[in-house]
Amino acid sequence: MKIYSKEFFSSLVALAKGKRGVLFIVLLFLMPLSVHSQKIAVKTNLLEWATISPNISAEFVVSPTMSLDLSASFNKWVPFANAKYDHLKIQPELRYWFQRPMAQHFLGFSLLYFNYDMMAKGVCHEGQAIGGGFSYGYDFVLSKRWNLELTAGVGAVYRFEKKYDEGTKPPYKNNGNTWGIAPINLGVTLSYVIF
Fold it and tell me: What sign has the CA pseudo-torsion 9, 10, 11, 17?
């Protein structure tokens, strides 16, 4: 897995020049950065473990109705025969809770950075993706410390990748730069509330 920082930053600059990019960057900087409460949870997505992708996230309450969830996952193994799924994913999400943080319904706004090296059906995909979108979730309070969260979300993702057939030499430059609508958040998450 390689991180192409020059291509990544040039793509961010190109994104920022459009109307959507300006909105994306403004929303990024409007995210609250300080924690106003002592409620913190450590979580793991059980669906990602099904693809042998270790993951962890932390959620911080930042206001009486909002929280900030920071998650990361990776995979360096072959989870299925004839399929490669190396990746590193970082995803912050700002959540609005209808009742109180970490209980019942919420709406979330996610940002996504995804670095991948995948192979399926003889086609290799090596590159990065950035994007953002919205999600809906429900948090079941199981006990004072334990919660189970169900989440689904969709958003816009910009991919810049090298796409080539297995066994051939990768192209020198990216040949698969595209925008697309994709699921950006899908989870059955077990969380432990620390404070």
Answer: positive
Phi first, then psi, for residue 37 (nearest 5°) are -140, 170
Copy the structure tokens of residue 37.
């409460």
pLDDT in tens, 80-100: 666 677 889 999 999 999 999
In degrees, rounded to 5, the angle at the alpha carbon of residue 47 between the alpha carbons of residues 4 and 49 is 70
HSE-up (13 A, CA, CB side) for residue 77: 10
Q: Whole-model pTM? A: 0.75
Q: Which domains does the chain have, with CATH numbers?
A: 5-32+40-193 (2.40.160)
Closest CA to 85 of 74, 100, 96, 99: 74
| Number of helices and strands in the chain (H, E) | 3, 8
